Predict the 3D structure of the following.
Amino acid sequence: MSNSELLLLALTLPLAGAIGIVLTDRWPNIRETITLVCAATLGLLVITIVQRFQAGESIALSLLEVVPGLAIRFEIEPLGMLFALVAGLLWFVTSVYAIGYMRGHHEVNQTRFYAAFAIAISSTMGAAFAGNLFTLFLCYEILTLSTYPLVTHADTPEAKRGGRVYLGILLGTSIGLQLLAIIATWMITGTLDFRHGGILAGKVDPMWSAVLLALFVFGVGKAAVMPFHRWLPAAMVAPTPVSALLHAVAVVKAGVFTILKIVVYIFGIDFITQSNAADWLIWFAAGTILIASLVAMTKDNLKARLAYSTVSQLSYIVLGALLASQLGIIGGAMHIAMHAFAKITLFFAAGAILVAAHKTEISQLDGLGRAMPITFGAFLIGSLSIIGMPLFGGMWSKWYLAMATVETQHWVLLGVLIISTLLNIAYLLPIPLRAFFAKPPEGKTYNKIKEAPVASLIAIVITATACLVLFFYPDPFYQLAVAAAKGN
Amino acid sequence: MIDQHVSLLLVVIPLLAAPFVAVLPGRHLAWLATQIITAICFALAIYQLLQVLQGGIISYELGGWAPPWGIEYRIDAANALLAVIIAGIAAITAPYSLASVQREIPQHQHSLFYASFLLCITGLLGISLTGDIFNLFVFLEISSLSSYALISMGKQRQALTAAYQYLIMGTIGATFFLIGVGLLYAQTGTLNMADLAARLPEVIQLRTVHTAFGFILVGVALKLALFPLHLWLPNAYTFAPSVVTIFLAATATKVAVYVMLRLNLTIFSSDFVLKTPANEIFLTLGIIGIIVASATAIIQKDAKRLLAYSSVAQIGYMIIGLGFASIAGLTATLVHIFNHAIMKAALFMAIGAIFYRIGSSRLDDLTGLGRQMPWTFGALIIGGLSLIGVPGTAGFISKWYLVIAALEQDNWLATIAILGGSLLAVIYVWKLVEVLYFKVATSERQDVREAPLLLLVPTWVIALSNIYFGFDTTWTVGVAQTAIKMLGMS
């Protein structure tokens, strides 16, 4: 199969899957088989593409020109490859998990759920492989819209409110700010292609470049830089598999990925350094890291705490991008992968606790660890990886981010990273520790509670193991991150 | 032979057919005739557009009398495109009307309804094709009178007051227009547009000409429902039969925008217009109109009325593009004329399908029906997304060119209004979505079923065209740019 056919297949396979899912509405087993087969095939496809890409082949696909000069075009470059690899691999794991979860939790509207999920993955792939800013924007918006029915899955007034915030902020920022920035870029440069070193250098004066960068950073609402972060906690009304894959991996990472792409390929890191465009924006990222961590500490609801933790971690990547140094880009890009594996483990565990023990609040978890050792063991591993302990993959990205602050002599930002790590410990570690070591409330024993359905458990173990493996073998992601930063 | 007479046939066929249709007996004959005639018109309009694109401007002398003595039909890409929109929307509403009209209009009025419908098409096509300003007034009256009749056939009694309101406002508009035309004729002695354009520069200093321009401007502004002269529109769209709302919302105001464009660019030169405050007025009223009408749409309690206010806001977009008086701005106006026609047609068709089932478009009555009518609901969502301007839909292309035109002139106020209007559109479109999907249907509406195929197929054709024209813009942007070249903008 030729390279462009391979690319087209990776984009359309999930869509075909969505159609198949809708058609097999009445036969749940066949429907779930389609999901699994598509997800597994996509995983293999992405791995094949990585191999060809690493072998130095160029993989691109032009579909059609909407307006002269404005084409729908896909082209693989290291950053997108990294993002596609993370999303493609985790779709399969999440599908396995979701089947256990949705059946264990007796959810309604499962067909709509799986179909919308597949469309969301397709648009995630599109965003990852986008060859210009227009295509990226198109896929970004499809991703927003296709995840809306997932957020409002429960059809309750609460879900409706969550969906309103979700759509309002994501569409509002993208149309109000991002589209404006894209059109301005188009008018200044006459192109929206991604080029290493950027397309804006020498065409805008420093003051306007700062404004433009701000429009992009806040316009990409999915990156959840404060004050546009409210949608993420609101989206937690969604079923846990959605929170796990979409709101810890695909959707939010599509956001920070977009910012990385814009910094590297639209502005160019040299231009950002020269024009000081990011000088004041970077404090929004730093502020988000700290404030979101502090808010996370106050949340007793497990998913809400994880949501704010995600907000905080996303700004690590934004920070890495805005530092505009090679090490920062490497750190940011690696954090896309490392945080994805760790956070999805935490969400999987949160869902398993809900399905098996029907508990949503952290204060109810005392003593539950002995009844669900695998789940809480995985939770511990995920937490440690997010904190950035050695032996876990999360260490590497934090390492490079810290190095980047040292390299650019942003000592205060280094302090922010250190304080945030301490906050991570404070809000994540107590959860598994309480579960394992605290005594259950008076008169309660957890004899009847067993682990979550096997399918879910398998998924948890896979992602938790991945957190460990990535410490010893971060190479696939590291190489792509370096290639993205250096531009070869 | 037909080759040469296409432009005339476009007007004559529906005109001659109307009296025959009016006396056709039986339940379906009148509909069938309308269906056939609109299809023929659509084919002719497309043929005409292709001819213009290949061979340049068509000039047709009515009855063989050479202009400026005889009436001339002068067709460039702009009005050829407009004719395609009018005939196309008519052809797609015709199959829709079979079921919808049977439900909403008493049996004995069917023939009259279809006759008025054909007359309305005649009028609108005539306005777009003619090169004679008095002839334009005649067609304006034909289309207006027939639309008063059409609106008054609405099921509710308020339709009568709505039609009456429109009649008064429309007549004032037409009178203003006619006074302006009279003044121009007094000053130049000609009614042919090309001739007027040639003679006006000599007398352009005269106050009479400025007065004429002012009168015509206000007259047309009333017809196109430019804020704050839009007061007739919400009632007319709300209480008219669904088919009429679909057709008028998609074509009538657009034709008036076209007249404004023709007035500014062909009859009066853009040099003249630049010396008057017209462009500033367009920009100011457009911006205020977008914001105020969108905000008003949000608080409406009736789906048709909500969409009607949205139409007023969308007219603001077209007028802003005109006010920029730049190539990008005019491209945006022409493209949005086309795109708004298909998005509003899709939306009103979807609401019309619901109206067909439950006989109401009040939001309180629509609760939960999105679940029971998933296909109608799907088309409504596509139309809504296009209205918002999500990429991948036709609406996005309009927004793209509008924002470019605004940024070109560093007009930040307009930029904010254009994008802010999109955000307000998110709110009112999602208000519909939430009512249709998240609320529970009342007990007596539990058994409402999906709309019949006769309604669904046209609705989906037009909904999918919103997506198609979001990706392929050769027929919208491409034609618009050719049109602007032909209009002599550079």
